[in-house]
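Chapter review: from sequence to fold.
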Amino acid sequence: MAARKVSCAGRFFAPFAVINYRVVAMPMPEASSAGRIVRFGVFEVDLVSGELRKNGSLIRLQEQPFQVLTMLLERPGEVVTREDLRTKLWPADTFVDFDHSLNTAVNKLREALGDAASNPRFVQTVARRGYRFIAPVVENGVSPAAAAATHAAGALPAKSGDTAGSDVALHPDLEVPVPRRGLTRGLFLLIQVMYLVFYLVALFRWQEVHQIADSFLPGWGAVAIVTAVLVTAGIGIPLRCYLISAVAFDHRRLGEKFRWLFPAILAMDQLWAVAPFLLAQSIGFGAAFAATAALLYLPFSERTLVRMAYPDKALNR
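The token string follows.
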């Protein structure tokens, strides 16, 4: 009798036991607070909490610059147009100086990342279009299919009608592809060293310069040439030393200083451009003419190199 009661009780509670088992066995949903973590370089971005960290330390970043960063990270390697950013950051009924506000947001983002428009490591300006995030990105919590799709889209061959390098970032002022700052600064430095060598050789051999000048312009003409060589060399040595030290230490206001000095540099360089004719008897008239033509252009190439390496602050956006 007792066995039958136990058996009946077992059959009565069996459905409840099964139900309880099923409830316990159901997988618990993952917490939404896990978020999306994106890493690039020494930086880590939590797209859910809106936090930017560098080597684990929290970096303060305002809402709009962070939204710009979020849009760039969602489409790494792709151009995010200024219109897309405008739609994301400001609703259609918002009245704001869009260009200034967006430039300010991008500048604050670059400041937080220690980035620069002239030599970008993270945020690259694509002239007249928008911005592109160029650093390698590692993202957790995102479906790998999205990354694979992006990779496959980037690996597709370009259409025959497409122009190669259509997305190449252009200098906002010169309309040329942005070169590496190391290259432009190095070329500018070599030009300054060349002129410095010219000045020193002329000063050490001023008597020979006087003899050469006296051979075709005797008297006061030779004296005037030697005087011009000595005066311009004396002025040019400290000037070139300043430019060499400025570019060597990457003085950020060199572009502004060079524009202010350019009229004097142009005048001096044009005078020294005729110096090869003093050696015409040794190197020939043709070689002297070719060297003079190259030296006449050199100050303008200096200005272009400086504008590439040290753009205006208004263009550093």
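Two observations follow directly from the output. Residues 220-248 form the longest helix (29 residues). The radius of gyration is 34 Å.
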